[in-house]
């Protein structure tokens, strides 16, 4: 047993003599796991009642003969052309009301009965054919679910979804505040999906009725979950044991991944950061994916070994970066490190996407050498990290409802973006070396000393009481501007801001000032001054201690940051859009109180993360994201178990993994 290593393999695009060369190179690179069949629906079902599994049979048998394991996809990430021709209603209708014709991928209406029946049908046939095959270790349903549909079928399904949610039109009208602009509904069939033709007047985030738009986002996420459930049920009809997953996309706004948690046997996701300077953002995404199933290890289903091919510019991963980012995934909970793609395709939109094996099939490229070196390293490490958990005492709350509600709101500021706020607070925790669980607002908070809830716009599910419980027993809660504003239906609380959080925070907010991005109001805390931008809440302390004050405008000298003593603990409120150094200051103060600063907290761009194995061994990962070598503090030095050499300095893009066995009493290192 070891970390699974390999990735997305599409040999159906190549003649069989190439397959032989591929497997020779896979052996050299220690590739042991292949994801196959992701886009094979048109191949395995070339007509309505025609099935041909001969090519897929050959792919699976060749991989199995080499001793490799397979994550087998159902192939339904793109429907075949014949299906769209026979049933045009399976294609999506977009936000502008245009019915799509056949093309691209992610072009299937999730509410189409034909699509649901046919996608489940091919999954059922595949399961019946391949269930019990010794090489198949997981099922991969669909691919990167996403994209909304606004067709008549979705409208009808939305109305049924609303009936189940609200039961009565009276309850729906109250939730959506429909007496505004004479929108009261007297029949379910009067309800239209919110689109450019109905409630949206300037794009997807500008809606006249936030309630209906929020519910449509929830509905569409659930509709695609229903597609996943259809296929999983079909698989389970023949294979009751092999785990089933689908590949998520990390910080992806359209789908509430927390709603999918119970249906996934394990989480997997595709890591394609927007640039090559996003180490903290990737850490947030890894932590979010790990938190979906309460800390269970996940699979890194896709990453590029070199470049992507879907953006205006696609930076090449510098030497050592692929290894560094792969180990970062392991540090945050990955039990598999997989690539897209194993061999580069010759045509279409991904022909220039990075691959382990390029078009020429060479083994002497830098990329292949680095992939081979990492494969050797993972092979030598063996099962050390498998099943290890992150022992976090810090939680960061992440809430798709708050994300959606904040960004479809007509105020206070269109410039404040949920993910920017969350990322700033997670980045501070990451840089300061705190192990963090990124969890839903419904999760239990009992095991955490610190709970950080940036831009917690919506309060639901008894969250205010559970946050109060954290502080009451001696913990610390940190939240920010735009928190405690609305209820589950996106209606403002009939109370002082921040609504149900007011008793915990010991404040009220009477006014707020939203300004252009160039406007700066300085905030002074503990003798230091930090910039703040975009949003400035006028906070009135009602028992809370004023920690930071504004330095400009008519509210100069008033509270910008407060700390309230609640029970045995504290609750912080940051009412200003602090720059990153201001956020870092608040977070450092909180972590210091609880003794949670990491061993490399004062080393910029050096990341630490801890995992604890099922046997109780403590693994400390140290990753140097800088272009310069760094001398490690004594807590992060020892002997490299792979090379046998001592490690006291970590080179550019360097990685070390310390292992401390409780019985041994001293640290060891794996990596270097």
Automatic annotation (TrEMBL):
The lineage of its organism: Bacteria, Bacillati, Actinomycetota, Actinomycetes, Micromonosporales. Residues 8-380 form the Glycoside hydrolase family 42 N-terminal domain. The keyword Metal-binding applies. Its EC number is 3.2.1.23. Substrate binds at residues 105, 143. The active site is at 144 (proton donor), 302 (nucleophile). InterPro entries: Beta_galactosidase_C, Beta_galactosidase_Trimer, Class_I_gatase-like, GH, Glyco_hydro_42, Glyco_hydro_42_N, Glyco_hydro_b. This is Beta-galactosidase. SUPFAM superfamilies: (Trans)glycosidases, Class I glutamine amidotransferase-like. It comes from Actinoplanes xinjiangensis. Residues 392-596 form the Beta-galactosidase trimerisation domain. Belongs to the glycosyl hydrolase 42 family.
């Amino acid at each position: 047993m070891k970390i699974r290593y390999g990735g997305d393999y599409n040999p159906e695009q190549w003649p069989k003599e190439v397959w032989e060369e591929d497997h020779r190179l896979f052996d050299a690179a220690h590739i042991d796991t292949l994801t196959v069949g992701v886009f094979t629906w048109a191949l395995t079902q070339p007509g309505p009642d025609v099935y041909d599994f001969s090519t897929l049979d050959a792919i699976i048998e060749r991989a199995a003969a080499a001793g490799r394991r397979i994550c087998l996809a159902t192939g339904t990430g793109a429907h075949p052309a014949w299906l769209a021709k026979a049933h045009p209603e399976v294609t999506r209708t977009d936000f502008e009301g245009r019915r799509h014709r056949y093309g691209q991928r992610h072009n299937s209406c999730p509410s189409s009965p034909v699509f649901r029946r046919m996608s489940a049908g091919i999954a059922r046939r595949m399961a019946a054919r391949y269930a019990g095959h010794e090489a198949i270790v997981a099922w991969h349903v669909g691919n990167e679910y996403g994209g909304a549909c606004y067709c008549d079928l979705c409208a009808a399904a939305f109305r049924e979804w609303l009936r189940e949610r609200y039961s009565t039109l009276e309850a729906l009208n109250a939730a959506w505040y429909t007496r505004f602009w004479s929108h009261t509904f007297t029949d379910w069939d009067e309800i239209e999906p919110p689109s450019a033709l109905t409630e949206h007047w300037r794009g997807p985030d500008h809606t006249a009725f936030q309630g209906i738009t929020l519910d449509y986002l929830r509905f569409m996420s659930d509709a695609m979950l229903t597609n996943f459930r259809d296929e999983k049920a079909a698989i389970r009809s023949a294979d009751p044991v092999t785990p089933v997953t689908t590949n998520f996309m990390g910080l992806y706004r359209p789908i509430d991944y927390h709603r999918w948690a119970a249906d996934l046997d394990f989480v997997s996701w595709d890591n394609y950061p927007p640039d090559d300077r996003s180490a903290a953002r990737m850490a947030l995404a890894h932590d979010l994916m790990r938190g979906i199933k309460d800390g269970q290890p996940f699979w890194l289903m896709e990453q590029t070994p070199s470049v992507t091919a879907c953006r205006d510019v696609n930076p090449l991963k510098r030497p050592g970066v692929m290894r560094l980012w792969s180990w970062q995934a392991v540090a945050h909970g990955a039990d598999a490190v997989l690539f897209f793609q194993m061999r580069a395709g010759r045509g279409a939109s991904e022909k220039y996407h990075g691959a382990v094996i390029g078009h020429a099939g060479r083994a002497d490229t830098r990329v292949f050498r680095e992939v081979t070196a990492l494969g050797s390293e993972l092979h030598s490490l063996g099962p050390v990290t498998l099943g290890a958990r992150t022992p976090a005492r810090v939680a960061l709350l992440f809430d798709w409802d708050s994300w959606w509600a904040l960004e479809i709101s007509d105020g206070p500021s269109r410039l404040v973006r949920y993910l920017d706020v969350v990322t700033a607070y997670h980045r501070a925790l990451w840089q300061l070396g705190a192990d963090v669980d990124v969890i839903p607002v419904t999760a239990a908070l009992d095991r955490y000393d610190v709970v950080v809830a940036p831009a917690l716009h919506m309060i639901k599910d008894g969250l205010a009481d559970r946050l109060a419980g954290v502080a009451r027993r001696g913990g610390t809660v940190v939240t920010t501007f735009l928190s405690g504003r609305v209820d589950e239906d996106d209606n403002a609380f009939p109370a002082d801001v921040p609504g149900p959080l007011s008793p915990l925070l010991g404040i009220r907010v009477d006014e707020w000032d939203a300004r252009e991005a160039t406007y700066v109001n300085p905030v002074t805390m503990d003798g230091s001054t930090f910039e703040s931008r975009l949003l400035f809440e006028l906070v009135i302390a009602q028992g809370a201690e004023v920690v930071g004050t504004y330095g400009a405008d008519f509210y100069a000298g008033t509270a910008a940051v407060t700390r309230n003593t609640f029970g045995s603990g504290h609750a912080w409120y940051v009412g200003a859009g602090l720059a990153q150094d201001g956020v870092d200051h608040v977070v450092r103060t909180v972590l210091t109180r609880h003794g949670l600063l990491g061993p490399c907290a004062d080393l910029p761009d050096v990341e630490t993360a801890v995992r604890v194995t099922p046997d109780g061994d403590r693994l400390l990962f140290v990753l140097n994201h800088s272009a310069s070598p760094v001398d490690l503090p004594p807590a992060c030095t020892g002997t490299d178990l792979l090379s046998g050499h001592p490690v006291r300095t970590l080179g550019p893009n360097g990685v070390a993994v310390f292992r401390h066995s409780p019985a041994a009493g001293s640290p060891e290192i794996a990596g270097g």
